[in-house]
C-alpha cells in the first residue's frame, strides 16, 4: 500500500486522489485549479454545452456509452440515474457495486484503450497523458471535472453531469437532498469548542480549513489544528508527529484506514501519541478512505461520521 496518501492531498489535490486504497499512483502535491463553478449552460434537449475545466464542451446527443475515469464522477452518475448509460469505469471506481469496473486507468489514461470502448462521452478528473486532445481527434467529447475546492463546486459538478447525460432533474434532486441533509446534520450537532486533526496518510499529511474537506468539518464548528501549520502547502500541509502531539486535538479523524491500516491502536504506538486526549478518550474516528476522498453524493456519509464523532466527544 502506498505510504504517501497525498492521494487526497490528491483526490482533493486534483487527481482522483485517494480513489481508494487500491491505487499505487502518487497524487500531485498541490491542488489543481478548479474550473468555474457556474452552472451548466443548458438542461434541455440536446445538443447541450457544459462548462468544464477544459472549457465549454458540446455534447451532440444524449450519451449512451459513457466511460468514467473518475471515481467521484462514477458515484455521481449512478446517483443521478445515469447508471444505465455508463458502459465502463476506471479501475478505482469501486462504488456503487454495479459500476462496470475495468482495467482502464484514470491516472494514466490510454486513448487507444478508451476508444476501444466506443464511448460517446468520457469523464476524467484531470487532463493527463493528453487524453482530451487524443479523444478530441476522434470526435469523443471529454468532460474534465477536477477536484472540488468548495462544497458548492461539488454541487455544480453533479448538476453538470445531470445536464451532460440528460438527467438534470434527478441531479437537482440529489443536490437539494445533499444540502438539506448537511444542514440538518450541522443543526443537530452539539455546540462544543473542539479541536480536530484529519489525517490523509501516515506521513502525516493533513487538510486545512481552506480545503473542501475542511469546509465539511467547519459545518460542525470544529477548530482545525492544521490551520496553524507553518507551511499550508495549498491547504494540505505535511505535519510532524511532534506538531500533532503538541496540538493534542480533541478528535482525530483517520482517512488512511484501508490504505495504511491505521486505527486508534496504531496511533497509540506512535512516539508521543499514546497520551493524546483523542487516543485516551476513544475519540479516534475511523473514516472510509474512499468516502473521505471523494466529493460526490457520499459527502453526506462523511458528514454523518463527523457528526457522530462530535456528538460522542461532546457527550
Automatic annotation (TrEMBL):
The Gene Ontology biological process annotation of the record reads: cellular response to iron ion
An example of a Pfam family matching this protein is Peripla_BP_2
Q: Which UniProt keywords apply?
A: Signal
Q: Does the keyword Lyase apply?
A: no
Protein's UniProt keywords contain Signal: yes
Q: Note the InterPro entries from the entry.
A: ABC_Transporter_SBP, ABC_transptr_periplasmic_BD, Vit_B12_bind_prot
Going by the entry's taxonomy, the superkingdom of the source organism is recorded as Bacteria
Indicate the segments forming the Fe/B12 periplasmic-binding domain, all copies.
65-314
The similarity comment for this entry is: Belongs to the bacterial solute-binding protein 8 family.
| Name assigned to this protein | ABC transporter substrate-binding protein
Per the UniProt record, the source organism is: Herbidospora galbida
Amino acid at each position: 500500500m502506498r505510504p504517501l496518501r497525498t492521494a487526497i492531498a490528491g483526490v482533493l489535490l486534483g487527481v482522483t486522489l485517494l480513489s481508494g486504497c487500491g491505487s499505487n499512483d502518487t497524487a500531485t502535491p498541490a491542488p489543481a485549479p478548479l474550473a468555474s463553478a457556474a452552472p451548466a449552460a443548458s438542461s434541455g434537449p440536446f445538443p447541450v454545452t457544459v462548462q468544464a475545466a477544459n472549457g465549454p464542451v458540446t455534447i451532440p446527443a444524449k450519451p449512451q456509452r459513457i466511460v468514467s475515469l473518475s471515481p467521484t464522477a462514477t458515484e455521481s452518475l449512478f446517483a443521478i440515474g445515469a447508471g444505465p448509460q455508463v458502459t465502463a469505469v476506471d479501475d478505482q471506481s469501486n462504488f456503487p457495486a454495479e459500476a462496470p469496473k475495468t482495467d482502464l486507468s484514470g491516472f494514466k489514461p490510454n486513448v487507444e484503450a478508451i476508444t476501444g470502448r466506443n464511448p460517446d462521452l468520457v469523464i476524467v478528473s484531470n487532463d493527463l497523458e493528453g487524453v482530451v486532445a487524443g479523444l478530441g481527434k476522434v470526435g469523443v467529447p471529454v468532460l474534465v471535472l477536477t477536484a472540488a475546492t468548495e462544497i458548492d463546486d461539488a454541487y455544480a459538478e453533479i448538476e453538470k453531469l445531470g445536464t451532460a447525460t440528460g438527467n438534470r432533474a434527478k441531479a437537482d434532486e440529489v443536490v437539494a437532498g445533499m444540502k438539506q441533509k448537511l444542514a440538518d446534520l450541522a443543526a443537530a450537532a452539539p455546540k462544543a469548542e473542539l479541536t480536530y486533526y484529519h489525517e490523509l496518510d501516515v506521513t502525516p499529511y493533513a487538510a486545512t480549513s481552506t480545503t473542501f474537506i475542511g469546509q465539511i468539518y467547519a459545518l460542525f464548528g470544529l477548530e482545525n489544528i492544521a490551520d496553524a501549520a507553518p507551511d499550508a502547502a495549498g491547504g494540505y500541509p505535511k505535519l510532524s508527529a511532534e506538531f500533532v502531539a503538541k496540538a493534542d486535538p480533541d478528535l482525530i479523524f483517520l482517512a488512511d484506514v484501508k490504505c495504511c491500516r491505521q486505527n486508534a491502536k496504531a496511533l497509540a504506538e506512535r512516539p508521543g501519541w499514546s497520551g493524546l486526549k483523542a487516543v485516551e478518550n476513544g475519540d479516534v474516528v475511523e473514516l472510509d478512505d474512499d468516502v473521505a476522498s471523494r466529493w460526490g453524493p457520499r459527502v453526506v456519509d462523511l458528514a454523518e461520521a463527523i457528526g457522530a464523532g462530535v456528538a460522542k466527544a461532546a457527550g
